[in-house]
Amino acid sequence: MTSVNVNGLRAAAKKGFVEWLAVTEAEVVCLQEVRAEPGQLPPEAGAPEGWSVVHAPAAAKGRAGVSLYSRREPDRVRIGFGAEEFESSGRYVEVDLPGVTVASLYLPSGEVGTERQEEKWRFMAAFRAHLDALRLSAAADGREVLVCGDWNIAHREADLRNWRANRKNSGFLPEEREWLGAVFGEGEGEGGYVDVMRRLHPDVEGPYSWWSYRGQAFDRDTGWRIDYHVATPGLAERALKGRVERAASHAERWSDHAPVTVTYGS
């Protein structure tokens, strides 16, 4: 299973996404920040052969948008998570596959002191309620849950290189980190979800999945780990290996994010 913020699928398709998709061994690929209507995408990117594709574009043209590609037809598709404010925001799509519900999430990025941050808080509150309900309903059906995507929060100091300089910035605010920690069962209450890549790589910085295009952030690996596989414990225990598919060079990048790929056993 792979998750990647493509930073505009039309642009990514011209820079290497199509070639990457043609050789990936992933059974499911979750995309974020697609920023296009399905009809605007070239067929090889928007409706590639061999994939069942669900697109959830945003009502606001050229913004957000999530998609989910799977090797088999989903048993059920859901766009949005029941919060009226965000139903057409292009930030969440969910499908049922055999034994597992998989979702692609693009959580708002926010900006301290602006309405964007207030929107992010509202989204987080509503989405946490959905996560809790989804976990309980899936457990009742004997299913696992996997929410892949750009969560736009670095959970720990090990999840971004320049954490000291970002303590007052959106993406590393104490309240955001606490919220994500609660999803993972830290603090009061049981979140019931596992940060799969951190479980597989417990004692390392990163591995980072996003680097600014500014300066030499990529070359110096001055990145953030904000792209997650968030799974219920049963599925997390089946994670065999995980990696960030970091491009070999700055010139070979087709997004400012890199694919995060996890192999799950049966």
Automatic annotation (TrEMBL):
It is an enzyme of class 3 (hydrolase). SUPFAM superfamilies: DNase I-like (SSF56219). Residues 3-257 form the Endonuclease/exonuclease/phosphatase domain. Its cofactor is Mg(2+). Its EC number is 3.1.11.2. Pfam families: Exo_endo_phos. The keyword Cytoplasm does not apply. Keywords: Hydrolase, Magnesium, Metal-binding. InterPro entries: AP_endonuc_1 (IPR004808), Endo/exonu/phosph_ase_sf (IPR036691), Endo/exonuclease/phosphatase (IPR005135), ExoIII-like (IPR037493). GO terms for molecular function: double-stranded DNA 3'-5' DNA exonuclease activity. Belongs to the DNA repair enzymes AP/ExoA family. NCBIfam families: exoDNase_III (TIGR00195), xth (TIGR00633). This is Exodeoxyribonuclease III. It comes from Streptomyces physcomitrii. The gene is xth.
